[in-house]
Every structure is written in structure tokens, then in C-alpha cells.
Amino acid sequence: MNLKVLLSTGNLIYTLSSSRKSRKFTVEYSTEVIFPVLTELQTAFHHQITGSDKSAVDHIKIICTKLTNNLIPATLRKELSHSSGKLTLEVEEDLFFIPWELLVIENRFFCDQFETGRLLIQNSPSVDGIGTHQTSNQTTIIVSDPGSSLSSSIEEGETILALLKKYGHKNITLLINPTMDKALSAISESFLLHFIGHGFSSEIASGWKFSDATLGIKEIRQLQINGSAPKFIFSNACPPRSSNNLESPVSNAVEFIKAGTLVFIGSHWDLKDKEASDFAGAFYLELASGKSVGASLQSSRSQLSVQGREKSITWATYFLCGKPEFKLSDNNTNDINDFIGHRGDLPAKNSYEDLGEKLKHYDELWTKKNKFWHHRFIQKYAKLSLWLLILATLGILFSNVYLSSRPLRVVFQRQGEILPENRRIDFMGFSNKDILNEVSNEKIEQCFIRHLTTLKSGKIFDKRGIPSKNIPSFFTVSGKIFKDENSIRIFLMVHRTSDRAILYADDFLASTTDEFPCLKLAEWFKSKYHF
Fold first, then answer.
1. Looking at residue 249, what DSSP letter applies?
2. pTM of the complete model beyond 0.90
3. Contacts (Cβ under 8 Å, ≥6 apart) of 356
4. How much is the pLDDT for 242?
């Protein structure tokens, strides 16, 4: 879906286009009305950074609802309330500073409801004689922290480096506190640039701050002349802002777009160091694995806002310039399924051929290993000994009970093979959905559906919210969402449908990016029932 916004004689003219139709909407626009609301929003973000606002998300939503009511006509709000998916905003430069991603439709931010990206409407190039030099496939990660005030910056750079290498990206350079000339030389040769540092603004210059100079409009326009601006930029830095200029945070983004950059991710407001690093790590984990930039941003926003950070609004500061469907590479882990049940619109995901490598990847990036217990020999035989001890104890003490009441009685045609009528699974989804936001809940449920469709001899039926009128399946997968202290968790169960006997139970942290619980459930069906 595409939404074009034009400014004409004191009015905003919207053109909403989809595959089915195109409609126009008009609303009166006045900076005298909009600027005080934006100033109020800027103040709210500042108070959250300094820790003086303990209910930041609710406060921000109230202000953004006021902003929405002044920018979006009621008829267009109603139209958008029934939509979802990708939303590309074509916006004039004079309107680029507005935080479109945070407009609110029926109590939901745009960035929660849509994979949102914005394109700059350009009448003509700002610099004549643009060169034809093409950037190489190099990736440059720059950490510019001359004052040593960003404690997580180097760790962030190393994490992104490890993520990109893990997914096969090569020719990656990590520069720590380079001079501006050295940084500019690397930037001009790069396809992807990730900048970690500070924005700087004064009466004579604004841009990225280096130890010896500031990279601003002059240097960006030289990249445009040479045709050497990076195609993908993530500026994980506080924006170059002057106190009285609401438009300055997007000035660098606009100049890079004019210079030929296809994707620019930046921030409207100041960032908390650790949370900004966490956001970048979550984003690149999604992006490098083959997801689009819009889906990766939406997923990392959801992760940062759900996992114990309900009072943080760092996730809300980011904006995307570029098409949300842009992908960093052609790698795509999704494939079309042979059988998906009722909905038919969810892609199946290929099973991981080497589950150990997937788990090893998570260990290396997100957990601290205990070297003794992670030694392969110790890990293998310690678990084996523990299981043998448990089985022997159960066999001696409870053999009669165990043999007379097994947890599952299934008729086999031959050893290891279940009859075809038993190879059916009903996926019921999760209860207490109001604890999670709708997007996060849907993504987690989709993860389980994708991995269950990889079962070679099983059929998965999507029964979420659908009364069971047909013959019920042999297995039922369901879950319950609950709050545990500062985190949100999901308790997952597999029942035998006929008598509700629990065959499998597990609980895990509610996360839109961690697919290990989904893998674990699919592997259980494969190993236990040879699906």
C-alpha cells in the first residue's frame, strides 16, 4: 500500500493507493498547530531519556494521537484502520521531519500496524553533474566515540560484525574512532554503512561527529557528485539537533537520499546507549537472515518494547527512509508449504538441517558460556548419565504404574510409524492475547505454524478462533501468555485431543525473533512420533 502526501496552499493532499483502488483525502495544515505538538513530543522524549517520565509510552501515545488528529482526516483514519502489511509513504521534503511512524490509528502506532518506510518526493537533483562511480560490496562499521561516553558502542560494532559474517557477508571493516578523512574514504567504497556515535549541530555545521571534524552536508554532496554514497545506512546515533530546529534531525537523511542512498535508518530523538545497541543487534539478526528491512525494523521494535522494556521508548525513535520490502541479500529462509490448513497465507519454513549450528549461533552472540559445562564431551555424557539414572529409578519404583498408564496409546502399523489418521495437529494459538501487542502475538504464532509445516508426514490445521466442526485432529497445540515478574512468557502444551492428556509442556520468553521454541516443538514431533 502506498500513501502519497503533498503540501499545497495550506492543505495536505493524501493519495492512498493499493492494488484495488486509489483515493484522495484533504486536510488543512498549519505549522502553528503542528509545531507546538511536536515540541511537546520532543520534550516527552527528553524526559524519558533523563528518567523523569515513568509512564512514557502512554504519554507519547496521547501526544501522537493529538498529532494524528491534526494531520490525518477522519475518513483516511477509518480507511487505514482496516489495513495492515507494508506502507510506503511518499513525502515532500517540507514534511519529512514529521514522525509519521508514530501516528496513531485506533490506539496503535503506524510502526506497529504497518511495515513503514518513507520515500522523498524530489522535483530535481540538488547537485548537478552527478558522477557514475559505483560503490563496492563492502560493509563499513564505524564507531566514533572520541569522548568515550558510549560504553556499548564497541560491543555493538563487534556484534553486528559477527552477525553479518555468520550469515555469509564478507568484506566487512570495523573502524574505531577514525579521522573524518579515513572514515570518508571507507564510506565512499561501501554498500552498507553502520554508524555508531554522536550527532552534532551548530550554526556553521551539523552531521556526524568525528575526533577531528564533522561530516555534514558538504561531504555528503561530494559523495553525490562522485556517485559514491552508500546504498544502505543505519545511523545509530543521537541526531544532529539544534534546540529550536525541529527539522534538523532528518537533515542528514534527506541529503543522503538525494545523494543516492536507497535505505537510511536514523533517529528523531536522543537514544539510550545500551538500548540502542540492543535494537541494532535485534535488527541485524533479522535482516542478515534474509528478512526485509521493514519486517526487521518492526520485529526489533516489538522485541525491545515487549521483553521487559514496557516503559522504554527507544524503539519509537527510529525512522526508515526507503522501501520497506528492501532486502540486504537474496537469502530467504521461507518456502511455500504443501499444506497449511485453513488460512493458507502463512509461508512454511524449511527445517534447519543442522540444529546444533543454529543453537551454537545463539550461544555465541547472546549468552555467556560456562566453559566446563559447554565442553562437548562433558555435556554429552553428563546428560546421558542423568537420563539413565532417572529412567532406572522410575523403572524400579513405578514400573507397574508406568506400564499400565502410558501417556499416549497410539496404534502403529509397524514400529516407529503412526497411522495416517493420527498425523493431524490442530494449532489453537495462545490465550490471554491482550498481554502482548497484536503484531508480536501473530509473529510468534506464525513461527510455530511455519516450523510445524516442515513435518514431512504430518498435517497442521490453523484452528485459531475457528470452532471445530470437522473431525478433530489427534494432537492439539495451544499456549497461554502470562506475566512473570518483569518478563512476558508463554506456557506451551501439546494435548491428546481425545482425552486432553498432556503429552508435552514447556515455557519460554515471548520473543518475535527467537525461533528456538518453534524448532524445539517441531523436533519433538519428529523424534517422538517420527513425523
1. G
2. no
3. none
4. 52
